[in-house]
């Protein structure tokens, strides 16, 4: 009886462990921001942007509704200055990045 309970418990643990270990959309979005945006933008709640004209991500929701950025990210973000590279994200990357930006509101 105890052996069956242990076997069942171990089976359940093995089945749920990959789901618990999988990164969330917010984590994937933060990783994307760290890899592609942090060179110029502050991507956290406290630091200053390395490039002074680059708005910190924590303030983007004050300028734009975060969900409104979805279309711009899909079509490609182009700015009026040469320092900002053009970015076009795929739908999964957009979802992840927007999920992360919402955690900074």
TrEMBL record:
Residues making up the signal peptide according to the UniProt record: 1-21
Query: Which InterPro entries does the UniProt record give?
Result: Cyt_c-like_dom, Cyt_c-like_dom_sf, Cytochrome_c550/c551-like
Supply the SUPFAM superfamilies for this chain. Cytochrome c (SSF46626)
List UniProt keywords, sorted A-Z. Electron transport, Heme, Iron, Metal-binding, Signal, Transport
Alphabetical list of Gene3D superfamilies matching this protein: Cytochrome c-like domain
Cytochrome c domain location: 24-105
Organism superkingdom: Bacteria
The cross-references to PANTHER family, in alphabetical order and at most eight, read: CYTOCHROME C-553-LIKE
Which protein, by its recorded name, is this?
A: Cytochrome c
């Amino acid at each position: 009886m105890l052996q069956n309970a242990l076997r069942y418990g171990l089976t359940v643990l093995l089945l749920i462990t990959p789901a618990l270990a999988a990164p969330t959309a917010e984590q994937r979005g933060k990783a994307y921001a760290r890899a592609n945006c942090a060179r110029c933008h502050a991507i956290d709640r406290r630091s200053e942007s390395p490039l002074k004209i680059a708005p910190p991500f924590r303030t983007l929701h004050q300028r734009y509704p975060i969900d409104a950025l979805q279309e711009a990210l899909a079509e490609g973000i182009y700015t009026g200055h040469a320092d900002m590279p053009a970015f076009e994200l795929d739908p999964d990357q957009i979802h992840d990045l927007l999920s992360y930006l919402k955690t900074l509101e």
